[in-house]
Amino acid sequence: MLASRVFSLVGKRAISTSICVRAHGHAGVVKAEDFSHPAYVDRRDVPLPEVAFVRDLSAQQKALKEKEKASWTALSVDEKVELYRIKFNETYAEMNKGTNEWKTVVGGALFFLGLTGLILIWQKHFMYGQIPHTFSDEWLSMQTKRMLDMRINPVEGISSQWDFEKNEWKK
């Protein structure tokens, strides 16, 4: 009985929080944005957004929109720019302007490469022991001599390259 009551409360809480998102610092609940309505976007591949950038026009902007309906030669350059800014947030030049984000990406990549290098140096210094004696030139020459004495792989291997009568490598 108690378990079913707890699960029903948890279920109701999960459903209510998934539908609405709590607002920061506000007492009420903010609804999620409805993406079925047209929205403004500044993108190079969408030159004419579905709606204007400024949706709620001030009195001055409304007067300018009425003046726009007349001849454009009567408008000043500042008024034309203001009309453009009502419709669009950024120009193509502003959209195409580069950002400095690449510096952050390169800096982060170099930081992690350096950290990885420090970890490898630490591992080599503290985790790995000395190089085994079997890697020394003396040991390798003794091993090769033993393989030749045992005549290992005489058809195509190391023994096929050794001249046993002259006791030297074939030329």
Compact overview of the structure:
With 171 residues, the protein is mainly alpha-helical.
Write up this protein:
The chain has 171 residues and is mainly α. The chain is 49% helix and 6% strand. The chain has six helices and four strands. The strands form two sheets. It has a two-stranded antiparallel sheet. Helix 2 crosses helix 3. The longest helix has 26 residues. It is elongated and about 110 Å long. 0% of the residues are buried.
Helix and strand pattern: HEEHHHHHEE
Helix content: 40-55%
Our estimate of the beta-strand percent is 5-15%
Class derived from helix and strand content: mainly alpha
Strand order of the largest sheet: 1-2
Oligomer, anyone? single chain
Low-pLDDT segments: none
Bulk shape? elongated
Largest sheet: 2 strands, antiparallel
Radius of gyration: 39 Å
Integer average pLDDT: 84
Question: What is the overall number of helices?
Answer: 6
Distance between the termini: 92 Å
User: What is the count of β-strands?
Assistant: 4
SSE inventory with pairings:
Blueprint: H1 2-19, E1 20-22, E2 29-31, H2 59-68, H3 77-87, H4 92-96, H5 101-126, H6 137-149, E3 162-163, E4 168-169
Helix pairs in contact: 2-3
Question: Main traits of this protein?
Answer:
single chain; 171 residues; mainly alpha; two-stranded antiparallel sheet; two-stranded antiparallel ribbon; 6 helices; 4 strands; 49% helix; 6% strand
